Amino acid sequence: MDVIICKTSADAEKLAARMIADAINAKPEFKLGLATGATMENVYAELSKLNKEGKVDFSQVRSWNLDEYAGLAPEHDQSYRYYMNKHLFNNVNIDIRNTHLPDGLAEDEEAEAARYDESIDEAGGIDLWLVGIGKSGHVGFNDPGTSFASRTHVAYLNNTTYEQNKIYFNPPESMPRRAYTAGVGTVLDAKKVLQLITGERKAAIAAAAIEGPMTAMISSTALQLHPDTVIILDEAAAADLKLKDFYKEVFENDPKWAAYR
Fold this sequence. Notes:
alpha/beta, Rossmann fold, 7-stranded parallel beta sheet, 3-stranded antiparallel beta sheet, 10 strands, 33% helix, 16% strand
């Protein structure tokens, strides 16, 4: 696990975007895992900017998203398909047919979840999965208690997640209580995981996820098991890390990070 601490959230977001762009440039037929949420909006804005400047080409990229609300049509303004189209897909030269999210309106939810995992496997797996971290330390909608071996499934959202997200719905009570999510095991199957954590409010959970014991109560701790995880934080989110000075020293001196300093 590599931990990189940037001075500001803007620096962290730009670094994440640059790493993704470099990975795509190195392998044009890239399989990219994506996430949603406020943390990712500036990453997608930066990737869109790089694309318009000719610094990254999405024409052969295929993408899969972490999650989607069960029961929402793709055109609903709070569906994650709508979010991705708005913040990334409509702004870069990606073939929309190569962008994948679970079908929130699928009649057979178990079959849809299985189909989603199969589509990833048939593509040869995800090269890099960009993820954030939720208030309870969750990745995707893998709330506390989710098995590290879990595959894509429909999850009932706990009260913490519900309260955190319902503010985006009008009325708030219209937010679905169930959602498709790539499982913890699905994410761990990616060749690389890039996690972005910013803001003071994430400091305590970031420390627990990065330096605490692995536990199903914090699904993000499963990333400690992954052989190639990079976690990018800003100073505010890194405030509670015990080894933050060491992480900074490694980033400033390890030759593998020279291109990003």
